[in-house]
User: What shape does this take?
Amino acid sequence: MFTVNNDFWKDKSVFVTGASGFLGSWLVRSLVDAGAHVSALMRDTTPRSLLVQTGYHTKITRVNGQLEDYDLIVRTLAKYVVDTIFHLGAQPIVATAIESPRATFETNVRGTWNVLDAARVTGSVKCIVVASSVNAYGAQSELPYRETHDLKARYPYDVSKSATDMIARSYFAAYDLPVVVTRCTSLYGGGDFNFNRVVPGTIVRVLENIQPVIKNGGKYLRDFIYIEDAVEAYLALAEKINDPSVRGGAFNIGTGKPSSVLAAVEKILVLMKSSLHPKFLDDAFPQEIPDQYVNSNKAKEACGWEARTSLEEGLNKTIAWYRSNPYR
Assistant: This one.
């Protein structure tokens, strides 16, 4: 079982994009606690970000700017002699991508090649972990997703992640850039302020004694992975970047234990001892992929990582966080 090697990260110069997001906030905390020197590209300060709420934004070097600014990224990598990059920055919302495809492609696709090419020209970077997504696979008839599956995305957000995935691996193939790609499933945990997501949305509605909402009958299957398990996967792959089985590869990050959305909501209601019942909305979203879950054996074999938090344990931790922290 993988455990974070603090000696590996101590005094290492690490650059993170998307640091104020849900995953980024948790990852930055782990890196800072392990002794890394973190610089982070931030478009603006989001007061509701977990990074700000926990005070970790004061423990890193903030770089004001955006992914579309190639020259800024080059200067940042050179100035801080960056060793490791975690490229998490993206427009992450499927519905927003439908409404604003151009802006989504600018951030997710152009932003990716900007980061990769900046790393290529500066030359100090020894590891780049790039966040793709299970959405890059698109809808598949054969599940669970395996890394050998073709990427069959069709809609703007999903295609942007397929492009991110393929561009990253092309930089490895063409330039031997030290890249590894992650394809994470549905993240959940404390500090997620996107209440359109099923887990935080349900918990917050129950706390406020409001009936939780379920779309599409709650029948779709999702692979819910607890946020701290996902962070460990990112760190594990980075620590193993020089292993030929890791470098240049793509890795599924999930539990392999899918749950229907309805079952997850019902579990939250039981754990919170709520008498509320979910409200079903006939609000089908045609671009939503019906079932998504993965086989993560490749990550286990390559770096000893596997998800260790059960859905019940993770939900209990998440519920406790929202009960103890401001979320509005």
